[in-house]
UniProtKB/TrEMBL annotation:
The lineage of its organism: Bacteria, Pseudomonadati, Pseudomonadota, Betaproteobacteria, Burkholderiales. It comes from Scleromatobacter humisilvae. This is ComF family protein. InterPro entries: ComF/GntX_DNA_util-trans, PRTase-like, PRTase_dom. Belongs to the ComF/GntX family. Residues 174-240 form the Phosphoribosyltransferase domain.
Amino acid sequence: MTNARNLLARWRAAAGGRCLVCRGWCDGGLCRHCDARFAFARERCDGCGLPFVVPPTDGDNARCVRCRLAPPPWSRVVTGVDYGYPWDRPLADLKFHQRLEPADALLRPLLARLDDLRGSDVRVACVPLSRERLRERGYNQSWELARRLARALSLDARADALFRVRDTGHQLGLHRSERARNLQGAFVVTPRHAAWVRGARIALVDDVLTTGATAQAATRTLRAAGAREVHVWVVARTPES
């Protein structure tokens, strides 16, 4: 019986593990069926990350009307998937339940949109947690995603390029304007990484983009510190509410 179990364990290891969605055996995160069903690419606005209802045809930087009229502070947002089934559960597990196993599978749709940046001069940073939130969660899920992206794309990364100077509390349930006020002055560039940020193209990584208040506050901090461009990379974008 022990030998049979050992053989089964070795076979499963060689097979690569279970699909994140259907739990069938596959060679890495998502099986072909679930990848085709849930991880397909959608044409999205470069400003807000929302999918286009009707893709633009005028070549105006692939932005929706709202983002053309009121451009966000970042140069581009890149999103892997829409927030919702089947991504919401593994994202919550990663963020709140100290489960790192889904991270690589969650990143696959995003990585597919970033392949042209492999080995480029983009530098990778993450949205930082407060000390209180870091103690509560045990790790920063945004850094766990950022370092995997940086490794896969052969990019330079820093876990502490940004520092959260105060605990802003949970943003869940706050209105867009309340989130923005709550995050004013929440971030600074770590002094020892000031030269790393200055003049650079920075990719700011987070798990989910909702109202964009956190990413906007962090982007403005990086730009004020001299970053040439800031791109926002997120696993998932919440639908328009």
